Amino acid sequence: MALFDLPLEELREYRPERDEPADFDSFWKNTLSEASVHPLSADFRPYDAALAGVEVFETTFAGWGGHPINAWMMVPRGATGVPCVVQYIGYGGGRGLPHDHLVWPAGGYAALVVDTRGQGAQHHNSPGSTADPYGGQNMQAPGMMTRGILDPEHYYYRRVFTDAVRAVDVAAAHPAVDADRIVVAGGSQGGAIAQAVAALQPKVVAAFIDVPFLTHFRRAVEITDADPYHEIVRFLSTQRDSAERVFRTLSYFDGLNFAARGEVPALYSVALMDLICPPSTVYAAYNLWAGQKDITVWPWNGHEGGGGRQIDIQLRHLRDLFAG
């Protein structure tokens, strides 16, 4: 692992041209409007997690297509009117178990930890429990990146991002949560989801976006051989006449286009030796973010980024954000 991307001085100024479809805004407006015909049906069932200081709720709600999405809602015991962090999960992982996510409740915040549909069977430490009933409309390379990739209407991440937007409404519906103080957070795939939701969901007041995936697709697939981006390369290596359709689809889900619409305060992080989410792809989004922003740079790390050190920074950031 070495410094393989642009020098830091160039990263700080890197603002690539965006491949944005003319109907980007209407596509997402129509997608969320279509989803809204399904009642949210948020259900919070008390769950015995053997955690004396935290109330845990087994949570389900209706995501894209009315499909059931699972989550954990966790609240400091006895708390009311608290801010909430809506946490999204990295690629291949699921929501795991409540004790995996105690940092936010320990800080005095509620947390909604959202499963990613169709994932959670890859990482044995973070199992998921939410299926993706929709089958997609084309052959796919192993993994989730090319499911439905020939048409934005059928692309997998249309459903995932919609689920994630609706999850914020779920958090706002819990009686212990202050609906005016909801933050979205995640790393890698979770960071990409948080980035998109912060641009699409007006209830969000801030975003923690760590080493975001699904961002600056064209550059990512050209400069890294690492999965999951390489799933797209494998697909194109056999579906040789599909590149134009593939990149058109991806333009509706590219983090660059969401970043340009992100107006809430955002705290990013980037790792300069990250082969999975190359630093130029992260900086491209950060530099385009339209709202107040800051970025933590980890010069000697790969995709793990700042790990616990980044969480420490986020906790202090939240404390300052909600002071008083």
UniProtKB/TrEMBL annotation:
Pfam families: AXE1 (PF05448). It is an enzyme of class 3 (hydrolase). Keywords: Hydrolase. GO terms for biological process: polysaccharide metabolic process. Residues 1-319 form the Acetyl xylan esterase domain. Its EC number is 3.1.1.41. The keyword Transcription does not apply. GO terms for molecular function: cephalosporin-C deacetylase activity. PANTHER family: CEPHALOSPORIN-C DEACETYLASE. This is Cephalosporin-C deacetylase. It comes from Sphaerisporangium rubeum.
